[in-house]
Structure prediction request, 292 residues.
Amino acid sequence: MKTHRDDGSFSFSGVSWILKTHLEKEKPSQDVNGRLFIDKQKEATMKTHSHILINVPHASTFIPEEERRFFDEGKLTHELLAMTDHFCDDLFGLGYEMIRFPVSRLFCDFERFRDDEKEMMAPKGMGACYVACSDQTPLRQLTLEHREEILRTYYDTYHQALTLAVEEKVGQLGRCVIIDGHSFPAVPLPYEYDQNPNRPDICIGTDNFHTSEKMVRQTTDFFSKKGFRIAINAPFAGTMVPMKYYKIDPRVSSIMIEINRKLYMEADGTPNEDYSALKEFLGEWLTLIEKC
Ligand SMILES: [Zn+2]
Prediction:
């Protein structure tokens, strides 16, 4: 059950209320436009009848005020600049339904495994709740109880919201195509496993069950023709699929798009002159994917 609210925010069976409450308490000043899941301006023209669902997990710079004291405050500005997928909620905000994680990945990273034992980034101090910076120095103090509370409040809630959003698409339209929208720095950060300095412009993340060859081919062809250098599953691999459907239900497709940040922003985190053109390309590409 999905409900629109007067303020343009979105709720999936009420599970977004906790996230919403936090946002209302103090709106993130650096957040692109303070929206929760859905771009208010686009709501009137939103393509609710499209099977495309955009997932943007790393674009927020918001850390709840009461949580900031656990971080090394002196490192936060640099870490937020280095680790945030800046503007991805705006770049992928093209009129399709979007679900975006409303807090910074430094606080909670919803695309990591909940269980550190299963998470390959946990040994780097960057599992679902980061305790290390991208340069591998300490970022934050965190007890196991505190971690669990954050995971229950944010991580579990968002996973539930994403699953419900996918359920709705599948229920109403017979299928769902998840677009997992990310960006990455032009130069590898010290924590990254893949330190190859020769990075592509666009990295496509796939899953052998949920990403069709046609979708990969069309995406590769499209961006290549626009002059971009493409890599598949490098330097980042995989794409988001809710566990309920993972490797079980072919009605759920998914593809990750990771954009090299040099294509659309300056080193100081401001958009560059190519920003609008890139956003237009993404819109064209989504029209193509919608027909896949
Ligand atoms: Zn990301």
